[in-house]
Design goal:
By secondary structure, the protein is α/β, with parallel strands linked by helices. The protein is built from twelve helices and twelve strands. The protein has a domain at 4-191 and 223-251 and 292-314: 3-Layer(aba) Sandwich (Rossmann fold). It binds nicotinamide-adenine-dinucleotide (NAD) and thymidine-5'-diphosphate.
C-alpha cells in the first residue's frame, strides 16, 4: 500500500524542505502537510509544490484533538513525520507555556490519535519525531553528544522538546507504537525565519543594522544545511530501525564570533562593500539567560548505520543561503512585518 504521510509543521523552515523533498521524490505517496500557520509557518515556502497531485494542505492546530482525528480519518494517514513545534529559545524564555502546550501536549495529542487510528495493525505504521541536540544540555570545551548522552535540557524550549521525546519513547514501550526519533544540530538555509542567528544577521547586514551578539560570542554551535537535514530525515524515515534514536550533524562546529565574522566577510564581497565594513555592525549585548555554551553532535551512528552524510560544505551552504536571502527580499519583508517588529523590539531594545 502506498504511504499517506502526515507531515506536521510543513509550512515552517525545516518542514517545508522535507515536504518538497517527499512530494518530488515519492510521487506514489500522498503528502499531507498539517500546519497551524503560526508566525513561523508560511505557505509561500511551498509555492513550487502546492500544485503537485500528491500534495495536500490542512490548516490545523495539533492542540485540537478532534480536528487532528478528522484529518487522520479523511486521509487514512499511515505514517507521521512530526516537526510542528515552537522552535525559538528566546521566545521560550519570554513565554514558556506556549512551548509546553504545542511541544508537549500537542505531541501527546498526535501520539494518542496515531495509536488509536493504527490499533488494528500497529507494526505497519511509523511515528517519526523530529527533535534537537539541545535536549542533551550543554558541553564544555571537549566531547560530543551521542545517542546515549543523558538528557539535561537548560531552556524552556529544550525542556519541552526533551519531554516530547520521552513521551514518544514511552508510547513505544507502553503501547508498542513504532517510532523513531532524530536529534539534529542547528540548521541554517533558505526559508528560516529571521529571528535565528544566521538569517537575522544576514538581514541586518543587508540593511546595515547592528548585529547583536550575546555575551562575548564565545558560544559554539554545530551547523547543518537544512537540505541535508531533510535528506537525513528521508533516510531515517525509510531505513531507520524502530524504536531507535539517530543524532544528525555534520561535524561542523563554529564559535559564534568566528561564524559572524565569516558571514560579514562573505557578505561584504557579495554586496561589493569594502572589506571589514560589516564587522563594524557587531555589537555585544547582554547574554541570553541559561545560554548553553557548546553543542556538538557525534553523527557516527547515522554515517555508519544508514550511510548518510552532508552533501555540501559549510562555505557552500552559507553561500547558497546568503544568495537566497538577497534574492528573496520580498519573502523577508512579508515575514518581518507586524508581529515580528513587536518581538524584535521586546527582545533587543533593553539589552
Ligand atoms: P519553525 O518554527 O520554522 O516551524 C515550525 C512550524 O510548526 C511552523 O510552520 C508553525 O506554523 C508550525 N506550528 C507551530 N505550532 C503549531 C501547532 N500548535 N499546530 C500545528 N502547527 C504548528 O521550526 P523549524 O526550525 O522548522 O523546526 C522544525 C522542527 O525541527 C521542530 O520540532 C524543532 O524542534 C526541530 N529542530 C529544529 C532545528 C533548527 O535548527 N531549526 C534543529 C533541530 C531540530
Ligand atoms: P539561535 O539561532 O537562536 O539557535 P539556538 O539558540 O537554538 O542554538 O542562536 C544560535 C547562537 O547564536 C546561540 O549561541 C545564541 C546566539 N545568538 C546571538 O548571539 N545573537 C542573536 O541575536 C541570536 C538570535 C542568537
Amino acid at each position: 500500500m502506498s504511504k499517506k504521510i502526515l507531515i506536521t509543521g510543513g509550512a515552517g523552515f525545516i518542514g517545508s524542505h522535507v515536504v518538497r523533498l517527499f512530494v518530488n521524490k515519492y510521487p506514489d505517496y500522498r503528502i499531507i502537510n498539517l500546519d497551524a500557520l503560526t508566525y513561523a509557518g508560511n505557505l509561500e515556502n511551498l509555492k513550487d509544490a502546492e500544485n503537485a497531485p500528491n500534495y495536500f494542505f490542512e490548516k490545523a492546530d495539533i492542540l485540537k484533538a478532534d480536528e487532528i482525528k478528522n484529518i487522520f480519518e479523511k486521509h487514512s494517514i499511515t505514517d507521521v513525520i512530526h516537526l510542528a513545534a515552537e522552535s525559538h529559545v528566546d521566545r521560550s524564555i519570554l513565554s514558556p507555556l506556549d512551548f509546553i502546550y504545542t511541544n508537549i501536549i500537542g505531541t501527546v495529542n498526535l501520539l494518542n490519535i496515531a495509536k488509536d487510528s493504527w490499533k488494528e495493525n500497529l507494526p505497519d505504521h511509523r511515528f517519526y519525531h523530529i527533535s534537537t541536540d539541545e535536549v542533551y544540555g550543554t558541553l564544555g570545551e571537549a566531547g560530543l553528544f551521542t545517542e546515549i548522552s543523558p538528557y539535561a535540557p537548560n531552556s524552556p524550549y529544550s525542556a519541552s522538546k526533551a519531554s516530547s521525546d520521552h513521551f514518544v519513547r514511552a508510547y513505544g514501550e507502553t503501547y508498542k507504537l513504532p517510532y523513531v526519533i532524530s536529534n539534529c544540530s542547528n540548521n541554517y538555509g533558505p526559508n528560516q525565519f529571521p529571528e535565528k542567528l544566521i538569517p537575522l544577521f544576514i538581514n541586518n547586514i543587508i540593511h546595515k543594522k547592528s548585529l547583536p551578539v550575546y555575551g562575548k560570542g564565545e558560544n559554539t554551535r554545530d551547523w547543518l544545511y537544512v537540505i541535508d537535514h531533510a535528506r537525513a530525515i528521508d533516510v531515517v524515515f525509510h531505513e531507520g530501525k524502530d524504536n531507535e534514536t539517530y543524532n544528525i550533524g555534520g561535524f561542523n562546529e563554529w564559535k559564534n564570533m568566528d561564524l559572524v565574522k565569516l558571514l560579514c566577510k562573505m557578505m561584504d564581497e557579495k554586496l561589493k562593500r569594502s572589506p571589514g565594513e560589516s564587522d563594524q555592525l557587531i555589537t555585544f549585548i547582554k547574554d541570553r539567560p541559561g545560554h548553553d555554551f557548546r553543542y556538538a553532535i557525534d553523527a557516527s551512528k547515522i554515517y555508519k548505520a544508514l550511510g548518510w552524510k552532508p552533501s555540501v560544505t559549510f562555505e557552500e551552504g552559507l553561500g547558497h543561503t546568503i544568495d537566497w536571502y538577497m534574492e528573496n527580499q520580498e519573502w523577508l519583508s512579508h515575514v518581518t512585518s507586524g508581529d515580528y517588529q513587536q518581538y524584535y523590539q521586546n527582545q533587543y531594545s533593553h539589552r
